[in-house]
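anyone seen this seq b4? input:
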Amino acid sequence: MTKLQQEITNFLEYLEIEKGRSEATLKNYDFYLRRFAQWAKNPSPGKITADIVRKYRLWLNRYEDAKTGQQLNPKTQNYHLIALRSFLKYLARQDIDSLAPEKIELQKQEQREVDFLDGDDLQRLLDVPLESDSREIIKLRDKAILELLFSTGLRVSELTNLNRDNVNLKKDEFTVRGKGGKLRIVFLSETAKQSIKNYLDKRQDPEPALFVAHDRAQKSENRKEQKEHNISPRSVQRIVEKYSKAAGITKEITPHTLRHTFATDLLSNGADIRAVQSMLGHENITTTQIYTHVTNKQLKDIHKAFHAKTIKI
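predicted toks r here
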C-alpha cells in the first residue's frame, strides 16, 4: 500500500470513529478519493499540487462513462472535490505536508430549485390517508407519517429509525439523531401528536419501532434494507407518492418535499434562519439559505397580487 493509500485509509477511519460519519458517507468518500489516487498514480501527499488538481478537474469535467457515455454533472464533480478538500484538511491537522485545502475551489452551480407544497395541496395530502380504502391500521399509520414529516422536517431516514420511546407524546418536542450522529430537538404539532397517538393506540404488537410494516411485502423489504421491524425509507417514499396522486397533486412529491415545505413555511411566517438551520440539522447555514430565495419570491408574488388588486379598486 502506498503512502497516499494508507493516509486515505487513516482518514476514512478518522471519519468513522472521531466524526461518526454514516456508512454511506464513508463509502462515497472512499470511492472519490481512491478515484483521485488512481488517476494521479498515487503520488505522495507532498506531491499533490495545485497543477495536479487543476488537471484532475479537467479530467472530471471531460469524463464520460464507458457504457452510457454520460458525463459527470457539476454537483457530482463538486462531491469529488469536497472529498479531496476534506482529506487535505485532515492531512494538515496531522502535520503532513500537502496542498493547502483552501486552494481547491468548487465549481459554481446554478441555484438549486426547492420544491414545496402550497397550503391547499398540503392539506389535501395530509387529509387523504383517512379517506383511503386501506385497512384502518395502515390509514392511521400513513396519516401519522405524513403529519410527522411536515411537523418536524425530519429526513426520511431519521423518521424510519425512530422507536416509540424516542417520542414522548406528553411533550411538544423530542430529540432525534441526524447526520453524523448529531442530536437536535424537533417540535411536534398538536395534529402530529394526535395522529401518532391514534396510530399507537390501534397497535397491538410489542415492537419498539414507532412505525412498522403491516403487510408481507414491506416486512420482507425491511429485512433486506434495515431494522427488521421498522418501516423502510423506500416504503415511506411510496406512501408519499401514493397519497400525493390520490390528492390530485400532479408534480412529483417525495418525503423531502415535506421537509422543504416545513422549512419554507417557517421562514414565510417570520422564523429566524438560524433557528430553521438548527431544526433542520444543517451543519452549514448556506444549505438553509436556499429557502430564503423561495420565501423572497413568495413575498414578491404577494406584493404583485396586492398591487394588482389595489389598482382594480
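Residues 220-228, 309-313 have pLDDT under 50 and may be disordered. The CA atoms of residues 28 and 66 lie 20 Å apart. kinda curious what u guys think
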